[in-house]
Amino acid sequence: MKFFVPASISAMLAVAGLAAATAAPAAGADASLLTDAQKLFRPLPASPSGANEQAELGRRLFFENRVSADGNVSCSHCHLPELQGADGLPKSFGVFGKINPRNAPTIFNAALQFKAHWRGDRETIEEQAEKSPTGAVSFGNPDFAAVIAKLRSIPGYPGLFAKAFPGEADPVTQKNWGRAIGAFERTLPRPTRFDAFLKGDEKALSPAEQAGLRKFIAVGCAGCHDGVGLGGASFAKFGVVSDYWKETGVAEPDKGRADVTKNDADLYVFKVPSLRNVAKTAPYFHDGSVAELPRAVRVMGKTQLGVDLADKDVESIVAFLGALTQPVPADYSAPAPFPDAAAHK
Ligand code: HEC
Ligand code: HEC
């Protein structure tokens, strides 16, 4: 009893985000860490296998430049394999070098989330994909008919759409463009070392990473960044305790979801982003205003929780976040160019 009672109380406090920063036991001695973590987070479910006609078509469309207004932009222009599905820029640029108002998140975790985009203005990844080709600063097409005309003119596509959507008289449609790309995106999540840990392999995280996980829970980060995505399942104000722009130094704050809903209650509200792959997707926040992860963690402590995290705590949390990196899927790459049209009969 003597051993169990205090341990379980401290676990409960920690799960509730109430444990004092000093209450975290030394790494290696934290027997309740796995059970605490299993209450807050969930391992990745199995991804659908990549081998289906819709996902194969979606992959090809994802890497296709020829449907953009200037012939240079595909989805992969801003969601690059070598940059973990993001683009490494504070703000993306699309057709004719036009700047997007926000930072490009990785798409690796998009399928796991409750809505798409920083402000949640797309309900699903399929809707996101359907609308992207007519975005003025992404693909720049005047309407979707222009996209369909280009797809029909490229030998190979009509046949692949027909194979992916059998039985449809006219399968080259906006809906099927969205469905195919969505099917591809749904194949992209891969388990990380943190998933192995959550499934019971405690050695999958180093002692330093385990200490960081304990800190992440104890200071309250998991109050928002929880579940399978460590985020991606709710909205929250950026700046619960103090104005975010004072911490990040931006001159003109983005009003966030309020611009979408026209409701003042949503001022400076953004989707809580998934932290999967976060160590590889700098710069940070909706505006890419923070270049480095330790600083982003510090800003979070200040704006969301009202705490000034000590250097060693920031370092520790950053070590844990490094365990959320997944491998880049082998088929997240441009497929071989179309063989000549004859081969596609
Ligand atoms: C010009 C650069 C650019 C191009 C091209 C582009 N994206 Fe994005 N993508 C972004 C930016 C920037 C955001 C964030 C937009 C926002 O939140 O307002 C984003 C967001 C997303 C999201 C939501 C991610 C999340 O976590 O909320 C998905 C999914 C996505 N893009 C997929 C695609 C697909 C599929 C295509 C091609 C059809 C595409 N993107 C083309 C820059 C781009
Ligand atoms: C009250 C909810 C809340 C809490 C608590 C919280 N966050 Fe966040 N976090 C958010 C929101 C909302 C954003 C998106 C901010 C924006 O608009 O860019 C975010 C963004 C981030 C980002 C940037 C991700 C990216 O891809 O750019 C990191 C890193 C992060 N949080 C880590 C943490 C850590 C570490 C803690 C604990 C110290 C924490 N958060 C606590 C809500 C929260």
| Mean pLDDT over all positions | 91
> What is the number of strand segments?
2
The first-level CATH class name of the largest domain = Mainly Alpha
Uncertain stretches of 5 or more adjacent residues: 1-25, 341-345
Bound chemical compounds = heme C
How many domains? The number is 2
- Biggest sheet strand line-up: 1-2
Task: Show the helix and strand layout.
Elements: H1 4-15, H2 33-40, H3 53-62, H4 125-131, H5 144-153, H6 157-164, H7 174-185, H8 193-198, H9 207-219, E1 235-237, H10 244-248, H11 258-261, E2 269-271, H12 293-305, H13 311-321
Antiparallel strand pairs: 1-2
Helix pairs in contact: 1-2, 3-6, 3-7, 4-7, 9-13, 12-13
The chain binds heme C (2 copies).
The site of one heme C has 24 residues, from helix 4.
Describe what is shown at a glance.
With 345 residues, the protein is mainly alpha-helical.
Tell me about this structure.
The protein has 345 residues and is mainly α. It folds into two domains: 174 residues, Cytochrome c-like domain (Cytochrome Bc1 Complex, Chain D, domain 2, Orthogonal Bundle); 136 residues, Cytochrome Bc1 Complex, Chain D, domain 2, CATH 1.10.760.10. 34% of the residues lie in helices and 2% in strands. The protein is built from 13 helices and two strands. The protein is globular and about 60 Å long. The protein binds heme C (HEC) (2 copies). One heme C binds next to α12.
Write out key terms for the chains shown.
2 domains, about 35% helix, Cytochrome Bc1 Complex, Chain D, domain 2, 2 strands, 13 helices, globular, mainly alpha, single chain, binds heme C
